[in-house]
Amino acid sequence: MSGQAKTGHKWRLRPASSNNRCMTFWRKPKQGGIDCKKNFIKLTKSTSRPSCRTTVCRHHLLKQRKSLLAQKMSCSSSQQLCTQYESLVEGYKMQVIKTRTEAEDSRVKIEELQKENQHLRKQVSEAEKTVRHCSRAAYGHHCTTSGITSKEQFPDLRSSEQELQESNKQLLNAERRLGHLNETIAELEAKLKQRELEAESRNERVHGLHDENRQLQLRLDTAQRQACEGEKEAAKKNATLEECRERLTERTKEVKELSQRMESGLAEARGEAEQLRERAMVKEKAAASQISELESELSRMRVVITSLRREKLDVERQLQSKLQDTRDRLEHAESTTRSLHSYVDFLKASYASVFGDIPVSQRARNRSFL
Fold first, then answer.
1. Disulfide: which of 10, 31, 94, 221 matches 36 by Cβ 3.0-4.6 Å?
2. Which GO terms of the cellular component aspect does the record hold (predicted)?
3. In the chain, what is the straight-line distance between the N-terminal and C-terminal CA atoms, in Å?
4. Quick check: 197 and 181 in contact, CB under 8 A?
5. Which of 243, 249, 257, 262 has its CA nearest to residue 45?
6. Using a CB cutoff of 8 Å and minimum separation of 24, what contacts does 14-18 make?
């Protein structure tokens, strides 16, 4: 309700002061029950909501608090995510270190096996050389002593053959061991490649987690800043809320005084409302009787209108039949006049041919007669 005074009614409202919006009222002379009732309803509406501004402040503060709680929850969740990502990063780092140590161990083993392989190859080559030397010596000795074929007479040849067999056995064992070593070296190299690939993938994961951790840290910093700003705003809003509460207490006191003053006006308004209800009931009864009369008259007029419509249709039908009869008669008269005109012309022609010329007066008489 505006602060201007509304004259011509029972209650007159004005603001109590320039700072507050509380309404004060005083009595005016009685001028009408309806105006009194309207102004009383307006007054109750205006005084029943004295703390609209404070409620708005409360809603705003509640919204601010909800937003702060949401920001705090997001900060805590982001901190938990950061700790989880840090633990994952540490685990991946430990796994990377473990794989690196395993790769180094496998490399050392491969180097040792390669060295052993080279040593075995050297032994094999030396054994092959000794075998070749023994075979050459045996063959030369056999050529020189072609006449003597018994082995008992040549102990050097027997010993050289035994050495040859032992060297062949050593050669076969060395080749087998060399094959096993090559297989183990190939397996270790494959494992080393797999471990290197796993280490690279884990390094990539660690880098990705570091990036995500940085982004989460930035988000956490921004959320903490927003939370600090929100706390400051909440402190300011709390101060304003305290002021609004003080004003609300003052307004409630004033409203109590107004309610006490309004009780007397409420009793008078109720009496006037009862009078208005009685008048309205009387008017409703009169209107109901008038409506019943009008409905009966309307039904009677509808019957009259239907009868008039029927008479109108009958008259139109009769007129149509009469019009058709007159048209037929007119056509018959026109046909008779045409036949008479043709007969008169025939008589004139025959008269002129029989009697000759006729005086002018006689022609005029004939025309007037026709």
1. 10
2. centriole; centrosome; cilium
3. 100
4. no
5. 262
6. 16/254
Q: How far is Cα 75 from Cα 81, in angstroms, rounded to an integer?
A: 10
Tell me how far apart the alpha carbons of residues 38 and 23 are, in angstroms, rounded to a whole number.
Answer: 17
Nearest to 138 by CA among 158, 153, 157: 157
Query: Residue 308's beta-bridge partner residues?
Result: none
**How far apart (Å, rounded) are the C-alpha atoms in residues 338 and 341?**
5
DSSP 51: T
DSSP state of 31: -
Task: Spell out a b/e string for 359-370, using b for 16 or more CB atoms within 10 Å of the CB, else e.
Answer: eeeeeeeeeeee
Q: What is the largest CA-CA distance in the chain?
A: 206
CA angle centred on 230, ends 225 and 233, rounded to 5°: 130
Residue 271 burial (CB < 10 Å; 0-12/13-18/19+)?
exposed
57, 244 contact by CB (below 8 A): yes
> What is the structure's pLDDT at 195?
76
Token pair of 27, please?
């009595």
Q: What is the mean pLDDT of each run of 10 residues along the chain (370 residues)?
A: 40 41 41 47 46 59 69 68 69 71 72 73 71 63 49 55 70 74 79 80 78 81 82 83 86 85 83 89 90 91 91 91 92 93 92 70 52
- What's the one-letter identity of residue 221? D
